Amino acid sequence: xxxxxxxxxxxxxxxxxxxxTLWATQRGQPPxxxxxxxxxxxxxxxxxxxNRQRAMLKANREAITKDVTRMSELVESLQKQLKDxxxxxxxxxxxxxxxxxxxxxxxxxxxxxxx
Length: 115
Hints:
Layout: H1 2-26, H2 46-84, H3 93-114
């Protein structure tokens, strides 16, 4: 007899819980949650991050223009040197150094442009 009471009370409680959940969903409210969800994080201060980002972009732009100017000077001098000297047999160390410096500057510009 006691077990039938337990079964009956358990069935009533589960029916009541499911009826309350169904009633809450029909009203458009989400079912109660335990524990309550965390509050959304506050948005970061955009003015500081924008100022930092602009300053960084300006510094990158200046570095890029400086590197590109230096690279174009090296390319012109390298072209002039190759045109003036006969390099069919042997390349001078100066030509190799200038080409390596051009390559290094090109990599720096590429990295700055990518961010």
